[in-house]
Write a structure and sequence with these properties.
Number of helices: 5
Number of strands: 11
Radius of gyration: 19 Å
Distance between the termini: 40 Å
Largest sheet: 4 strands, antiparallel
Strand content: 25-35%
Structural class: alpha+beta
Strand order of the largest sheet: 1-2-4-3
Order of helices and strands: HEEHEEHHEEHEEEEE
Oligomer: single chain
Length: 220
Amino acid sequence: MGTAPPPHDAAAGRLLRCAAVFLPAALPRDGRIAFWDPEGHPLPDRGDLWAPATGSGAGPSAPAEADGSGVRTSEITVVRRHGAQGDIRPSTVPALLLPLAEAVPLLARARHLRSAHPATRCWGAAALHALHLVSRGRMLPGLTADDHDAWRAGPRDAEDVAHLRAVAAGAKEVVNETLIDIILYRTRDCTGPGTTYLATTLSDVNAPSALPWRSFTTVH
């Protein structure tokens, strides 16, 4: 399998400031990561992200997406807040869709990038955890509901289980190192009372008796 060349830093930085969302497919490996800009700025062009493939990486053995040719633009529907009352409504926004082969290196970079969008950093953490499982051989063969071959994570050891339980349990301390404000919720679906407004560059620690934060939205 070929390896995608590194994207151009300036354009990649612009893309990682966008919000990322995973678009699943019948085959998990066919899913895509969609990047969209909550501020409405133009998205980077594919040509700005990847130079044309040259040398050995452009040979017939390299996958088609390795030179950025698998990236395409589209429109996706997201849920956003509107108006002074913060009403939640669906919106159709332009997005840049990346195959996983090209998205994973970008997401891994976003995990510790202060300027990256919180959603993108979150997917970066998921990507790094998945890579950690793969590097340890924690993969099992399986079949989809349509009898297509597909890999799944496992078997998990005690450390893996503890990590997943910690993620599911929520956060007791949040440091907002992004350039935008966020709202923290104690539910998994960004609803309900007891929210916490956390401005950019600030942090907050949950009271010992309070429920942990389990989801967040960004303020635009």
